[in-house]
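Quick check before the chapter quiz. The format below is the same one you will see on the exam, so make sure you can read both the input and the output lines.
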Amino acid sequence: MIDKQSHIPIYIQIEQILLAQIDGGSLTPGDPIPSETVMAEQYGVSRMTARKAVDYLVRQGIVERQRGRGTFICEQAQDLKMSLPLDSHLTSSEVATSLNSPIVNQLLHLEKVTAPNKVCEELGIAPNSQVWFMKRLRLVGSVPFVFESTHMLIDPYFDDLSEAELNSSKYLYLESKGLKVKGSQKQIRAELPGEEVRHYLNLKRDEPVLFARSIARLEDDTPFEVSDIYYNQEHYIFTLQAGR
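Here is the expected output.
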């Protein structure tokens, strides 16, 4: 029941009632929920308040509006979660060991470009140097987890980099050249991504991601790549080991 004296906003109370019905099994995927007009009458609230409750569930992907038919409970995707330690440099394959499905790399773009000035500074290379520029999507099965945009050295190490290595494992490619990765330095923040990232990560317009600007270094401390990494926060648990 709705408690109009509660400090909890009424639209949130309606959301909680609907979620309890879904969790309890009285509403199942494919079932319609009451119309906003019906809920407004049922709970003695305005239609705008009822609509606000439904809007929240739509944004979460729990229900969907179907024009001319009503609003229905969605099929819920498998709850894939992986733990990402923010204080360690791990490959996506290493992070995905908690899941039964392997990481799939999908190369979206690869070309040689003139490095932006900021990238030249971060990689310690001369202005206007040529570098690799790539975009990759990392998936578990068909679920997109990570979108990354990377500038990577060409000379003296990686002139033969190809689509095959990037769709397989970039770090195995490095190891085949006798190179090891020392680690990376990251600047991390939450942000609302642009249209391209939203598209590839299958995000809603107002859904945030964890963004990391990462500079990765080889064992001899040479920076070899600069990446903008966007993590689909729906599928990650972020951890940090803190000492005193």
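If your answer matched, good. The beta strands are 63-66, 70-73, 82-85, 103-114, 130-140, 143-153, 181-191, 209-218, 223-231, 236-239.
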